[in-house]
């Protein structure tokens, strides 16, 4: 009998496993996929670490979390600075002075502010009733039409007028010439890929891949004293209150016979007519100089059984439903729930690690 059965070899499960084994506990980590690392899995293609389940850029302001990941992997100094393509126009993201200067041919923050404020005033929007009104009220017409509308509608699969305002609570406008997408203190990409980082965390645990949780516990219900479950919480309880919604993503990955395809790791396509939201050129995350390059086009999709869930859809309806599952989960003293799917939260990687360390602090008090 193991001390812990950890379901899911992603970041939450791996951090928990590391903390447990360090305290002398025995862990069995299972995953139904044929690899560890969950959705941060990276795979070598043409000598390039390919982010198989979408681009992952590590960023945090949590110093303890930053020091923690640096114990298990070396990070480079990559800074995310995506570019957005709208028809034949190209803009820097996030919305900053480079964006505004290109859009309106202006130079100073005062000029940019004057244009944005005039556009907002002209629209005369009261209390925003949907995402479109909320965005327009925050950034004005030009930025909304060119850089937000199409992208958001593709990502969520519905019209901005049918999306709730609270999804875009705060769209930062930056009145400096600064293309760093994140505001965090620390940022980088593991030089040898995320899979290595997770493998390091899992040292000392037993790992079984291609292993389904339900099958395992059906045959061996006594396999562990306690379970750490990082899969979909609604699935764990057989969808007894009904299904939670998730968004999924589909990737088309291609090897190209050229050294440098788009000159940047992330290029967003913000017009609605182009079906994908972005193209990732993986080598640029690690400043690669290989002869070939690998790109992935990202197509958002509704989640349905049989495809991978990526994003919890944290609207009011789903959050209320999740609360019911959470209450049920609290009656199960033998199971801990963690990660994006177990906690139904749109966590970034640093928040996953923080959540895992907090759960461990409680568990190993
Ligand atoms: N967004 C946008 N235009 C862009 C990029 C992002 O309007 O070019 C908005 C959009 O509403 C999206 C949100 O910002 O849902 C978050 O997007 P991001 O790509 O930062 O999130 P990720 O999918 O990488 O977690």
Briefly, what is this?
By secondary structure, the chain is of the alpha/beta class. Helices cover 34% and strands 21% of the residues.
Report on the structure:
The protein is an alpha/beta fold and 365 residues long. The protein has 2 domains: 2-77 and 185-243 and 314-363, NAD(P)-binding Rossmann-like Domain (Rossmann fold, 3-Layer(aba) Sandwich), CATH 3.40.50.720; 96-167, no CATH class. Helices cover 34% and strands 21% of the residues. The protein contains 12 helices and 16 strands. A 7-stranded mixed sheet has the order 7-6-12-13-14-11-15. The longest helix is centred in the middle third of the chain and has 16 residues, at 141-156. It is globular. The chain starts with a strand and ends with a helix. It binds uridine-5'-diphosphate.
Sheet with the most strands: spatial strand order: 7-6-12-13-14-11-15
Low-confidence sequence ranges:
none
Number of helices, counting only DSSP H or I runs of 4 residues or more: 12
| CATH-defined topology of the largest domain | Rossmann fold
CATH architecture classification of the largest domain: 3-Layer(aba) Sandwich
How many angstroms does the end-to-end distance come to? 22 Å
Characterize the largest beta sheet: strand count, sense, and whether it forms a barrel. Answer: 7 strands, mixed
Helical percentage: 25-40%
């Amino acid at each position: 009998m193991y001390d812990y059965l950890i379901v899911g070899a992603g970041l939450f499960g791996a951090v928990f496993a590391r903390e447990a084994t360090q305290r002398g506990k025995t862990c069995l980590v299972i995953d139904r996929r044929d690899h560890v690392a969950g959705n941060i899995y990276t795979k070598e293609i043409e000598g390039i670490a390919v982010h198989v389940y979408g681009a992952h850029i590590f960023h945090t302001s949590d110093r303890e979390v930053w020091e923690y990941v640096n114990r298990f992997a070396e990070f480079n100094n990559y800074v995310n600075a995506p570019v957005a393509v709208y028809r034949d126009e190209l803009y820097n993201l996030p919305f900053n002075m480079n964006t505004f200067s290109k859009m309106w041919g202006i130079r100073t923050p005062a000029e940019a502010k004057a244009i944005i404020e005039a556009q907002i005033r002209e629209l005369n929007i009261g209390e925003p009733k949907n995402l479109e009104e909320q965005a327009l009220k925050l950034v004005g017409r030009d930025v909304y039409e060119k850089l937000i509308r199409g992208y958001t509608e593709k990502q969520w699969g519905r019209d901005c007028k049918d999306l709730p305002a609270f999804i875009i609570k705060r769209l930062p406008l930056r009145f400096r010439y600064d293309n760093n997408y994140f505001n965090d203190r620390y940022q980088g990409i593991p030089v040898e890929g995320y899979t290595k980082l997770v493998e390091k965390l899992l040292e000392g645990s037993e790992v079984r891949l291609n292993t389904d949780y339900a099958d395992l516990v059906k045959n061996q219900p006594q396999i562990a004293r306690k379970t750490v479950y990082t899969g979909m919480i609604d699935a764990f309880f057989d969808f007894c209150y009904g299904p939670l919604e998730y968004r999924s993503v589909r990737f088309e990955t291609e090897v190209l016979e050229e050294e440098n395809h788009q000159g940047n790791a992330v290029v967003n396509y913000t017009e609605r007519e182009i079906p994908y939201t972005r193209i990732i050129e993986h080598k640029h995350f690690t400043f690669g100089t290989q002869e070939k390059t690998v790109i992935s086009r990202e197509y958002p999709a509704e989640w349905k059984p049989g495809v991978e869930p990526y994003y919890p859809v944290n609207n009011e309806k789903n959050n209320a439903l999740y609360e019911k599952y959470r209450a049920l989960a609290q009656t199960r003293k033998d199971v801990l729930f963690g990660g994006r799917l177990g906690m139904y939260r749109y966590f970034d990687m640093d928040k996953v690690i923080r959540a895992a360390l907090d759960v461990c602090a409680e568990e190993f008090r």
